[in-house]
């Protein structure tokens, strides 16, 4: 070795150093490879975890959307039910109000008619005087308030055996309608009931001016002052 110019001791030392360095490098390389492999596995695991998390999030979003959709549908159904109930309540309230209104109007009409009759009864004497005054001016007759009662007596002078003569032959139980210029007293109504039967209705028509008008079926007896004045006016033509 010396002939070749190589120092054996130095060569051995350098060889030993190379072997040590090679061993150290091999161990270091192995450590680096192991570290890189672990890092690769860690990255792969992270990517897998991220994929699983993304899938879980997507599934959660889908489930949440289903829940929200069901909630929206339920809310819409509840709103529709509430609106339908509100409309029904409104319609029922309107119908009840209309019925109450009709009832009040009907009651008011009945009360007004009753009040009208009562007022006519209260001012019977005054209306009788006015009717007499009107008759005086037209027929130039000297009528007074007592004449009003005589008109009824005059009417009943045509009664024979409890029946109005001109109405004889009318079927028994036929309904009768008595119209007077003034409301009749209970006693006066009783006279007509006794003569015409129980099926009698009474009306008030101030335009008759006095007396009464009786209708049974298609027959009638007109004992009103209005009819007498009309007859007098016709006779003067």
Question: What's the SSE blueprint?
Answer:
Layout: H1 8-122, H2 124-139, H3 146-156, E1 159-160, E2 163-164, E3 176-180, H4 186-196, E4 200-204, E5 212-216, E6 219-222, H5 225-235
Parallel strand pairs: 3-4
Antiparallel strand pairs: 1-2, 3-5, 5-6
Report on this structure.
There is one protein chain. With 237 residues, the chain is an alpha+beta fold. It has two domains: 35-108; 124-235, no CATH class. The chain contains five helices and six strands, in the order αααβββαβββα. It has helices at 8-122, 124-139, 146-156, 186-196, 225-235, and strands spanning 159-160, 163-164, 176-180, 200-204, 212-216, 219-222. The strands form two sheets. The chain has a four-stranded mixed sheet, with helices on one face. The longest helix has 115 residues, at 8-122.
Give a brief rundown of this model.
This protein is α+β, with helices and mostly antiparallel strands. It is built from five helices and six strands. It folds into two domains: 35-108; 124-235, no CATH class.
């Amino acid at each position: 070795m010396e002939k070749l110019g190589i120092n054996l001791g130095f060569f051995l030392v350098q060889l030993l150093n190379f072997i040590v360095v090679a061993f150290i490098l091999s161990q270091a390389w192995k450590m680096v490879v192991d570290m890189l492999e672990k890092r690769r596995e860690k990255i792969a695991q992270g990517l897998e975890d991220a994929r699983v998390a993304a899938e879980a999030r997507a599934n959660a979003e889908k489930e949440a959307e289903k829940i929200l959709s069901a909630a929206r549908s339920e809310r819409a159904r509840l709103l529709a039910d509430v609106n339908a109930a509100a409309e029904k309540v409104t319609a029922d309230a309107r119908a009840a109000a209309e019925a109450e209104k009709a009832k009040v109007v009907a009651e008011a009409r009945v009360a007004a008619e009753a009040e009208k009759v009562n007022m006519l009864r209260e001012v019977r004497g005054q209306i009788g005087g006015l009717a007499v005054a009107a008759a005086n001016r037209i027929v130039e007759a000297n009528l007074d308030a007592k004449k009003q009662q005589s008109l009824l007596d005059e009417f009943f002078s045509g009664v024979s055996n409890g029946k109005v003569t001109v109405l004889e032959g009318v079927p028994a139980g036929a309904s009768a309608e008595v119209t007077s210029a003034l409301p009749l007293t209970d006693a006066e109504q009783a006279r007509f009931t006794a003569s015409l039967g129980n099926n009698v209705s009474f009306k008030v028509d101030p335009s008759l001016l006095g007396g009464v008008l009786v209708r049974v079926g298609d027959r009638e007896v007109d004992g009103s002052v209005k009819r007498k004045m009309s007859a007098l006016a016709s006779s003067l033509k």
